């Protein structure tokens, strides 16, 4: 599964800028709805689109590989 490292990048940016940055601020700056950002941050395996990834990379000044991480799916015993 692809994991979006939104919270980690948000924490790093907050630390660098020595201030608290909220998801509401990210929403305002990127044009991504607060609800979408919350889903990305809190729902494992949330599906998003390349426009959202592009906006987040621009905001955090990062490459997609810094925003996305591949995590092996867990085996489920049914």
TrEMBL record:
CDD domains given in the database record: HTH_XRE (cd00093)
Membrane-spanning residues: none
GO MF terms held by the record: DNA binding
Entries under Pfam families matching the protein: HTH_26
Source species, domain of life: Bacteria
InterPro entries in alphabetical order: Cro/C1-type_HTH, Lambda_DNA-bd_dom_sf
UniProt cross-references to SMART domains, sorted A to Z: HTH_XRE
Domain HTH cro/C1-type: from-to ranges: 13-67
Protein name: Transcriptional regulator
Source organism of this protein record: Oceanisphaera profunda
Lineage: Bacteria, Pseudomonadati, Pseudomonadota, Gammaproteobacteria, Aeromonadales
